[in-house]
């Protein structure tokens, strides 16, 4: 069992299924609803656990009722929350989310910017026995500590690069793998040309880099040349959390020693299956289901 540490954001998502995304200051009725844990690193940790890995999460939350919901939900999924720091007087993050009939989502997130961003406590707390570390750029200080720790241990340090990416400048220079969203890559490179932006990111950071772009699949560099792995075609119900569980899946696969191309295909399958179900990360598949799906897809 590979042991993966994820570092970053943990929240609660209040998700409403609606026919169309709200555009007027009116009352709307939801077709379905869910209250589920969310956040980049937290969702990735749940994916690792469901896919057969040992998941540890490092995050900052408040010592409040929302924080209690975050931790209890993660522990129910088998995630080790010993490194989730609960801060007195802080307010935990939560989101109000609408998902339309096409599976697209609209997110309004509250984040307590007074919650300490300090990560000095994290460095001595990271265990030595890890196979990979994944960090998101929502907590730049934590990401810097995480990527430095991965480099010191000689294990993959994978950065989930979302805008504003440059806030995590130190982590960008220490990561062995950087997985940009299309928006994150445009933000990083300052251009709409994703192919040029990806090459620029590869040359600037010296890391293995890729760009996830939803149904368009994943572009990356293989032996110094551009390469592509297509997305799996599915009937989309809910895209919420798909990118997060993709990152958890690729971190686990890379930590297991899978080649990057194979790791991308595995992560694409996990994200595709998640998109077929409503409820954010609740739709994350397990390992057997993912591998069966990949076999059927050929």
Automatic annotation (TrEMBL):
Keywords: Kinase, Transferase. Residues 1-286 form the Carbohydrate kinase PfkB domain. Coiled coil: none annotated. One of its GO terms (molecular function) is kinase activity. InterPro entries: Carboh/pur_kinase_PfkB_CS, Ketohexokinase-related, PfkB_dom, Ribo/fructo_kinase, Ribokinase-like. Belongs to the carbohydrate kinase PfkB family. This is PfkB family carbohydrate kinase. It comes from Aquibium pacificus. The lineage of its organism: Bacteria, Pseudomonadati, Pseudomonadota, Alphaproteobacteria, Hyphomicrobiales.
């Amino acid at each position: 069992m590979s042991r993966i540490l994820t570092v970053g954001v943990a929240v609660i998502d209040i998700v409403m299924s609606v026919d169309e995304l709200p555009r007027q200051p009116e009352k709307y009725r939801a077709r379905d609803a869910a209250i589920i844990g969310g956040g980049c690193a937290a969702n990735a940790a749940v994916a690792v656990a469901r896919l057969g890995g040992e998941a540890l999460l490092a995050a900052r939350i408040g010592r409040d009722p929302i924080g209690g919901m975050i931790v209890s939900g993660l522990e129910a999924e088998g995630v080790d929350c010993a490194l989730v720091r609960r801060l007195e007087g802080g307010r935990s993050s939560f989101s109000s989310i609408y998902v339309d009939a096409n599976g697209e989502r609209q997110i309004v997130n509250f984040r307590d910017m007074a919650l300490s961003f300090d990560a000095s406590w994290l460095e001595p707390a990271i265990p030595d026995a890890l196979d990979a570390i994944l960090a998101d750029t929502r907590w730049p200080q934590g990401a810097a500590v995480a990527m430095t720790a991965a480099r010191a241990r000689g294990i993959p340090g994978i950065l989930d690069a979302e805008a504003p990416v440059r806030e995590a400048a130190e982590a960008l220079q220490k990561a062995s793998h950087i997985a940009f969203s299309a928006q994150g890559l445009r933000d990083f490179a300052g251009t709409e040309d994703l192919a040029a932006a990806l090459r620029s990111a590869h040359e600037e950071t010296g890391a293995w880099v890729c760009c996830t772009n939803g149904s368009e699949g994943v572009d990356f560099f293989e032996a110094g040349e551009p390469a592509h792995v297509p997305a799996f075609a599915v009937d989309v119900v809910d895209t919420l959390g798909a990118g997060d569980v993709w990152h958890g899946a690729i971190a686990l696969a890379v930590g297991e020693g899978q080649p990057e191309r194979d790791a991308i295909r595995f992560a694409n399958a996990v994200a595709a299956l998640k998109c077929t179900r409503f409820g954010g990360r609740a739709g994350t598949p397990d390992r057997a289901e993912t591998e069966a799906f990949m076999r059927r897809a050929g």
